Amino acid sequence: MNIRQVLVPIAAIVIFGLLWELLVWANGWPNYVMASPSDLPPAYARYWELFLVMGWQTLWRTVVGLLLAIAFGVLLGMVMGFSRTMRDALYPLLVGFNAIPKATVVPIVALLFVGDHNFNTVLIAFMISFFPIAVSVSIGLSTLEPEYRDILASLGASKTTIFWKIALPKTLPEFFGALKVAVTLAFIGTNLMEIVSPHGRGLGALFDSGKTNSDYPLMFAVLIALALMGILLYYVVVALEKVFAGWAERSPSY
Amino acid sequence: MSEALIEIKGVRHAYQTKAGPLPVLDGLNLTVPEGGFAAVVGPSGCGKSTLTRLVAGLMKPDHGEVWLHGERVKGPKSTVGMAFQNPVLLEWRTILQNVMLPLEIVPTKLSKSQQEERARKLLALVGLEGFEEKRPSELSGGMRQRASLCRAIVHQPEVLILDEPFGALDAFTREDLWQTMHKVKAEEPFTGVLITHDLRESIFLADQVIVLSGRPARTQYVMDVHLTGERDIEHLYTPESAEALNILRHQIQIAQGRAVDAEAAE
């Protein structure tokens, strides 16, 4: 990574902050209409302990939900990728499930497992984020060119061997593409639960309390904190992708 | 004549489609002696690729028999190597690792270092020395096809099945690869079946050319090729070769239904 790669994104963030500040200042908006970047440091200074505790709650529940989504999504994708019948059977069901706005599912889940706030939150994060993973894995597997299979099948390799040696690695680029989408979705899921069904846990609850008290700087501070966590997780996925599917990246000269 | 290594007797096969059975092979006969190299030519869509899958044991014919080395083919056998028009190299592996892939499946007595040594030797044979650690995406189409060829023979198969391996290459690269094939055959003897659309390729590489009829395919014509000695491209421009090519071209036209088979009409 050279200096340019570091400086350019930082410059973009600074410029964005300045424009935001300018917008608020030019319109003369007071704090209870729109907070400006200069309101954020005081908000963080005042509530930093809450941010740490609740930020951690949001983060771990998102990650657990995401891990479940990966396990379930990969399994479902494998089933749909290898069996045409299962694909035909499950696809409409899956699309229908995905089409339901998760905000409507939140109250149902909250009532279903009332009191189990951690479980509920993880469940919503999971439900919202497994779909892209399942779809990408199933497409990756079902579009595997027959010659790839024949190369090993003609030597008498078992289906399991073909899966581990060829199908799985070949699907990794699609899988990581979906995982980048799923990371963001999982955050949305966690926060939906924390906001709609507040139990005083997570950044969503902090956001909700900011809303109740008309504390706009706090609400915006939460949004920025969420954005930072989202970026963090996203780049964790990017780093993993580099390690496991770096081969898919072509060098620019080709 | 030495023992027949590949024997296909009266094979018939039909695919089940929505519109009913679609016969692709109907009365196919083919015999390749040990060390022989047969080229199969025919109009497109005449079932040539089905033939390769039958020999490889990847599917069973409806009727008829496929024999390899005196044993009836019932399923895939590790004594077969395959290469296709698409080199299907695994992009996450280096060229060397790609070539060594079959040795991970087929039982082998070679130690890891011997396996690597063998793969390196084959890569050097086809002119890919120095590219062992490259990824497939860093190689040209012709080089990838060379690597694919190494992978097909690394486990010393008795039978090498080549399904239009040079079909997607430009004419000059293709001629280079033809010569590489002769080099490989001299160093690493195999019995081969080559599916191709290229008549020049068929007489340059094979010692037996089989013309299939249009779908459903049967063996329409068999030609023994006698291009003797060290084969180089100039052999394709002798009167003898021109005559062979002419006969084959005529047979293809018959297979396509564009010419009448004079002998059969009588």
UniProtKB/TrEMBL annotation, chain A:
Residue ranges crossing the lipid bilayer per the database entry: 7-26, 59-82, 89-113, 119-141, 175-196, 216-240
Subcellular localization: Cell membrane
Membrane topology per record: Multi-pass membrane protein
Pfam families named in the record: BPD_transp_1
Superkingdom in the source lineage: Bacteria
Keyword Cytoplasm carried by entry: no
Location (main, coarse): membrane
Keywords: Cell membrane, Membrane, Transmembrane, Transmembrane helix, Transport
ABC transmembrane type-1 domain segment(s): 55-237
InterPro entries reported in the protein's UniProt record: MetI-like, MetI-like_sf
GO cellular component: plasma membrane
Keyword DNA repair: no
GO biological process, one term: transmembrane transport
Family per record: Belongs to the binding-protein-dependent transport system permease family.
Entry protein name: ABC transporter permease
TrEMBL record, chain B:
One Pfam family this sequence matches: ABC_tran
Species this protein is from: Marivita geojedonensis
Lineage of the species this protein comes from: Bacteria, Pseudomonadati, Pseudomonadota, Alphaproteobacteria, Rhodobacterales
UniProt GO MF annotations: ATP binding; ATP hydrolysis activity
Keywords: ATP-binding, Nucleotide-binding, Transport
Ranges where the ABC transporter domain occurs: 6-239
PANTHER family membership: ALIPHATIC SULFONATES IMPORT ATP-BINDING PROTEIN SSUB, TAURINE IMPORT ATP-BINDING PROTEIN-RELATED
The name this protein goes by in its record: ABC transporter ATPase
Cross-referenced InterPro entries: AAA+_ATPase, ABC_transporter-like_ATP-bd, ABC_transporter-like_CS, ABC_transporter_ATP-bind, P-loop_NTPase
PROSITE patterns: ABC_TRANSPORTER_1, ABC_TRANSPORTER_2
Similarity annotation: Belongs to the ABC transporter superfamily.
